[in-house]
Each structure stands twice: as structure tokens, then as C-alpha cells.
Amino acid sequence: MADATGYTVDATSTSGHSVFCSSVNSSCELMDLECGKTYTATIVAMGSQCDSPPGPSTDITTAPCPPVLVSKQYMCDNNTAVISWSDASGGLSFHAELAGDGYQDSCRTTNTSCVIHNLPCGLELGVTVQAEGAECNSTPSVFQSLQTAPCAPENVSATLVCSNHSALVSWVGSHSAVEYTVTSTGQDAHTHECHTNTTSCQLSNIHCGETYDVVVTPHSESCAGTPSQVYSFQAGLCPPSNVAISSPCEDTSTVSWSSVAGAEMYIAIAVADDEHSHNCTSSVSTSCQFTDLHCGENYSVTVVTVDRGCWSEPSSAVVMLTGLCPPTNLVGEVACDTNAVTISWDQIQLPGVSYILKYEKLYDALPPLTWMTADTSHTLTDLQCGQRYAFCVAFEDQACHSSYSPPMELSTAPCQPTNFAARVDCGMNHGNFTWFESSGATFYTVEVTGDHGHVASCSSNDTSCAVRLHCGRSYSASLVASTESCNSTEHADIYFDSAPCLPENVLAVMDCYTNVMNVSWSETPGSDNYTAWAISLEGHRTSCNSTYNNCSIQDLRCGHIYEVVVTSSSVHCEIIAGSDYKVQAAPCKPENVTGNLNCGANILRLTWDHTTSQAQNFTVEATSASGVNSICETNEGNCSFLDLSCGQLYTFTVTGHTNVCMSERSYPMEMSMSSERVDRRDELYHQKSFGYLEYRRCSHSLQRPRNLHQWTQLLLQ
User: Fold this and answer.
1) Which of 205, 446, 600, 679 has its CB surrounded by the most CB atoms within 10 Å?
2) Which residues, 6+ apart, have CB-to-CB distance to 648 below 8 Å?
3) Cβ pair 529, 566 in contact under 8 A
4) What's 55-122 look like in SS3?
């Protein structure tokens, strides 16, 4: 409008609410209008002096007011949501919407409520309502949440719990579920339930051998969700029935029972009154055998079935009585003269008891023998000599037979020895006795009695022994075989003569230089031919003959010890074994003397030929050119010098000697001792000796440089 300086717009609602706006242009905005109202607006032009009258009026209708949610209700049985709200001023229709978790659904109505069907399970949805006007729509209502019913749990499974014969059911949880109900229904329609807010639950008191249908139902705060698929579960097996005991009154008893279909194994348990127990098992049959049961005990026997590693409840118990305990204090006594054995034991304080004595010869294939008696002892007279027997005893009454006692072993008296024989020898004047081995004997004793009263004896654990006799006498000998507790009956005495007496006062003198033994003796009455014998400990024999009371024995082996004995032609000797008179031949001359020098320790070890039959000593002499001497004594074939002077040339000789004679010296051996030990390999050093400067290495030889050039060459090596 011309000359207008500005404009003012006034708007008034039917409820009297007024707002205005002004502008120098041809438009302005009316603020703070109330929703759902119709305003009448007029425009006034303002001039510099006057304002125009209001222009023609016009109606303005504002947007509807937003609805207010009155309720939201979820129908659990059909997954339906019922939403209601308050009427909104200015609204011609309404638009309700459910959205969340990728899901969206809505309804449009002119009423103040609507229903949305077929909602998915397990969703957290937002609910809003918007009023729709002729020109505009209201802002959405305040957001409210709506939760649908939980979805069915998945992967339901059940395992058997061995400890309390229950089932542990587990599953994958449902979103929005706050609780679960597990229901198991048996084939006989009985049920078990458990409730939990976790994803597992234990069903207790389930019936053995039953098959259950297991269902898990989730719950939200307001609804029961969709049940899971049915899971079929087999409860643990029932215990066996018809438990029975065979072989009562024995230490080994068999328990049997009726079969249970599906059993992996059976275990039978026997519990005694003192609570000790025994088990036996079977996986292929419906019986098993208890071993090592205690005698004289009452046992309560039950059987369990094993299924998936779990034991069933025990079966009904049956009572088992084991065999009576055997008699105690079993002892035996052997009558050595008659070879009878008496076995005795303690009495059992029960009426009408009989005892069973069982015995067998050890290491024999024959079966054991038994003897029944009402007494607490029994004597056996038919046992063999020289044998070892095992004895045990049991008893029985009208109902039961006890087990046998632990075996007791006894040896009968040894058998009488056989083939007893005597043999005598000259010189040593021994009586040598032999016999055949006697069964059961551990040692033997020979007793010898001479007609002049001389008594001697010998013992042996072998089949021979010897005694010293008086020469030229008649003797009798008896032989007895023995054990620790018994002697055999004596062997019949044997009679024999000792060896004849030999010439007396025998004297042997060694000639050390010729190694000849000069022997003399006392002559016997009459004229006789004599033989002097030298018998070495190694069996070497040499002799000389004479019609007088002396002769010389040659061909002796050096270093050997000889027994000397003299016989005559008037004496008849089958065996000449030697005598107590011993003489040593001249010592052997040491041969093949060699030396070994340890340079670092400056120790010299000499060795020479020597045999153990040479019972002689040796002296080793070491003599240096400067007169330094050293001696080493030994009875072996070697000797070591530890204190020889370094830088000296020694001559070594070895001499053998006995208590009477000395041998020739060995061939001399020379050896040069090394100088001081050096720390560096082949290091050279100097030593003043014998008026000149010497060069030494650890060596058996001595080398002297001849001139300065040689000294220089050696020092540069």
C-alpha cells in the first residue's frame, strides 16, 4: 500500500488467545500459536500520520495437538498390540507406529485406538502416535516402548548328573527372557519342573529307566514366550533286580542279578559290618566273583548299573556270610628217629567241628593229601625222609567250611647216606672220606675212632671231607647226614687202616747255588730202598733214590715250595700226597727287566717276569755314577722309585730271595733320569752339571750340544 510505513497483523483464536506480528514488508510470522485452534487475522497498514482501518479478516487453522498415549497392551496369546491415546485437538485422523530392531508396522484410524497383529517375538519396539489435520500433522507423541513375547529357546540338551541322579538341561537363551521354565514329561505322564533365570536348570527326582520329553518355555516380565522344540532324554538306568549269592561260606563268592537293558557295566559292592568293602565288576555278564573276602564276616551286597559313566541307585541288599576263619597257631614237630611228623593247632570254640589237615610234598606233581580228625593234632608216619612238606588246616561244621590256614613248611629227617668210603694217603697221613649225596641233608659229619683210642671228626656240606690220622693204625668211621634240627640214622660203620708209618726225622737243606735239595732221614730196621719225594703245591713231583739215609733231589723249579716226604720199599703206599714238611727251592733269577719313566712326576717303574707260583721276594738296587744308591723291596713283579735324583744315570739290578737263598742278579739296565719338569711344551732350560752346560728334554737319553751353532739351533726350535 502506498505511503504505508509498516504493517501489523493481529490474530485471535476462538478461545480468545491473541498474537500479533509486524513488518515493513508484506509478510510476517505469527509466533506461539496454540495447536488445534482457528485464528481470525486482520492486517493494519501504518502511515506516518495515521493507520488504516483493518483489512478483510482471514481464518488460520493451526496443526493438531500431539496425541497422548493412554495405554499400550501386548496380547501374549496372539502376538497383538492394542494401542490407545487421548483425542487430539484439531486432529482429523491418527497414525500409530511400532518400530525397532529393523521391524516397522503402523495403523491409521479416526478413532483413539488401534490394533496391530502378528508381531514378531523377541523385539523391543518403540510406540508413537501422530494426529493428522487438514493441512498439517502433529508432532509424534512421547516415545514409549513395547516388548513382544520371547522367542523359543534353541539347542536344548540334557545330560545325566551322576551325583544325585538328576538331569541337567541347558539351552541357548532367548532375547528379552527374564526367566525360563523347564518341563519334563515321562511316558507315564508324570512331570518334573524347574525354574531359572540362567540358561540351565537341573531336574531332580527323575525316575530311573524313563524317557522324558523336555520343553523349555521363556518368560518376559509380562508374557510366556514360545516353547522350545521337544527334546527327548533318557534317564539313568535302574539298578538290577534278583540279586543272589552263590557259594556261601567261602572266601570267594559269586553274586548274580537280572540283566538291565542298555547297561554299560555292573558293579557289585560288598560292605562288611566293620565297613571295609570289596568290589567286583562285569561288563559282559550278569555275575561277578568276590575274591579275598575276610573270613568269618557278614557282608551286605548291592549291585549298581553303570550308564554313561553314572552309577544307578543300589539294588536291594542281600546278606552274604563268608567262610569261617581257619584254625590258628599251626605248629609241627619232627621225630628225627622215626621220621614221624606231628601237626597241632588251636581249638575252635564251636560244637560239632571237624578238622581237615592237608599236606603235600613240595616240588612234586602229586596232588595234596587230606586227613580228617576231631582232634587238634595229628601224627603222620608215612612221610618220606629228606623231603620238605607244606601243611595247612581247615575246619567245618554242619553249615560251612573254613578256608585253609597259611601253609607251614617242615623238612623231614634227611635220608641215610650211601656209598660211604675211605681212602688214605702217605705223607700227609689223611683219611679221605666220600659218600653219595643224601636227600634233605644240609651238612654231614664223619667221626673216626682208632683202635688205640684216637678220635677225630670232620664236617662238610659237600660229599667229602678229610681227617688227620695216626699212621699204622686200624680205624672205624661213621657218617651222619644232618639238617638244622635233625640227624639221619647212622650209616653202618666202615673199617680201614691208616697209611703205614714212613721214615722219620726227615731233614731237607737247599743248595742255593745249584738249586738241589739234600734230604736225610732216620733209617728203618733192616735193609731198605728209600725214595725222597719233593711235591710242589702246583703238583710238580721230583724224587731221588738211595739205600742209605740221604739223597739229593734235583730238577726243582726255582721259587716253588715243595712238600718233602720219604718212603721205603718196605712201606706200601698207594697214594703219596705230600707232607707238612715244606721247603722252598732257590729263588728264580729275574728276567726281562724293563723300565718306564714318568717324566712329569720323575717316577721310574721297573717290571720283570714273575709268576704267582714263585713265592719269593725281590730287591731292586739303583746305583748312580756319582755313588747315589737307592733300594726298592717287593714280593711282586714290579717296583717303583719315587726319589731318584734328576739328571743322573742309574744302573738297575733285580735280585730274587727267599728266607734262605738269593738268586743271581738280573742283567743290569741303565737309564738316565729326566731334568726338572717344565711348564711350557719343549721349553729349554740350562743346568750346571759335570762342568759343562747341558741341554735336557724329558727323555731317557742325554744329548750334549757340541758347539755354539748347535746351541743356537736348539734354542730356536
Assistant:
1) 446
2) 624, 625, 626, 628, 672, 673
3) no
4) CCCEEEECCCCCCCEEEEEEECCCCEEEEEECCCCCCCEEEEEEEECCEEEEEEECCCEEEECCCCCC
713 backbone dihedrals φ, ψ, rounded to 5°: -65, -40
Tell me whether residue 76 is in a domain: yes
**Which residue shows C-alpha cell 498390540?**
81
Q: Map residue 239 onto helix, strand or coil.
A: coil
pLDDT mean over 198-206:
92
Note the pLDDT tens digit of each residue in 587-596.
988 889 998 8
In a domain, 28, yes or no: yes
pLDDT in tens, 172-183: 999 889 999 999
**Among positive and negative, which fits the CA dihedral 580, 586, 587, 591?**
negative
Q: Compute the Cα dihedral for 548, 549, 551, 557 and give only its sign.
A: positive
- Determine whether 257 is exposed, middle or buried from the number of CB atoms within 10 Å of its CB (0-12, 13-18, 19+): buried
Do 172 and 226 lie in one domain? The reply is: yes
Residue range(s) defining the domain that contains residue 286 = 244-321
H helices present in 426-494, as ranges: none
Residue 346's alpha-carbon distances to 323, 325, 389, 459, 640, in angstroms, are 18, 12, 20, 40, 74
If you search the block for the grid coordinates 656209598, which residue do you land on? Answer: 419
Contact of 516 with 442, CB cutoff 8 Å: no
Q: Backbone phi, then psi, for 392, in 5-degree steps?
A: -150, 160
Task: Report the Cα 490 to chain-centroid distance in Å.
Answer: 55
45-64 pLDDT, tens digit per residue, is: 898 888 889 989 998 888 89
Q: Is 119 within 8 Å of 92 (Cβ atoms)?
A: no
Measured CA to CA, the distance from residue 643 to residue 527 in angstroms comes to 64
For the chain, how many structural domains are there in total? 9
The closest of 419, 389, 385, 382 to 487, measured between CA atoms, is 385
User: Please, are residues 564 and 506 in contact by the beta-carbon 8 Å criterion?
Assistant: yes
Residues 290 and 311 in one domain: yes
Distance of CA 10 to CAs 3, 26, 43, Å? Answer: 21, 14, 7
Q: Which CATH number characterizes residue 249's domain?
A: 2.60.40.10
Contact status, residue 293 vs residue 252, Cβ threshold 8 Å: yes
The string of pLDDT tens digits covering residues 128-141 is 999 988 888 888 98
